[in-house]
Amino acid sequence: MSDQEAALSQATRLAVELFPQALGAVLGGSIAQGRATATSDLDIGVLLPDDAGSGREVIRHEGRLVEVFLNALGDVPQFFEWDRARRRATVVFVYAQGLTLADPHGYVARTRQLAREVIASGPPSLTAEEWRHGRYVLTCYLDDLVDSSSGSRHEQLVIADHVLREAAHLGTAHYGAWTGIGKWLPRRLLAAAPTLGKALLDGQQAVAEQADPAPLAAAVTELLDLIGGPLREGYTHRWQACEGPSV
Length: 247
What we know:
Blueprint: H1 3-18, E1 24-28, H2 29-32, E2 42-48, E3 55-61, E4 64-72, H3 76-85, H4 90-97, E5 99-102, H5 107-121, H6 128-147, H7 153-174, H8 184-192, H9 194-210, H10 214-226
Parallel strand pairs: 2-4
Antiparallel strand pairs: 1-2, 1-5, 3-4
């Protein structure tokens, strides 16, 4: 039995044992895509009756860490729209690209079709204000990066991390692509912009390994030129009531 087959078997047992009221379940994440490592957890989506409610649980089952996404059937359309609005669509991807574990009534098939439609529609575009704010923030980080020195390595490394995250956010938005966090950040960034994405990732690596901010600064400058250029003086933002400063 392959590792993926073993994971499928375990995920099916978990769904049956812990969620006997489930209307169906899917296995997503790295395991479903054949990219699992020895320590990969299970990402399982479970559809429940409407009176069961929705939520998220992290458990350990048969020695393996499992992240369970629980969705009441009636909540799915609204939840998928919320997940899409984050521009990461974490649970939507679980259903769209996952492997069906159980679907006795066809609910999983219909949910997966909806998920594929959401993925095909792409993430929402950034608003004009979000673009302006993003350009301003990335410009500030770029200035800090250029001014950083190998004598302040802790600061330099933190700045490079913030530069890459903001650049990935704006870069994927520019290409109308989904973004990600953690290991999904480089995957989504490279999928959206293979050449520029690699330059940004290689630039961060140069900061980490050689204390050299120049390659990352050059890649960020290229990105900023694509989205309207650096933004410093002239940027304004008005705070709403109960809203903190934007940084």
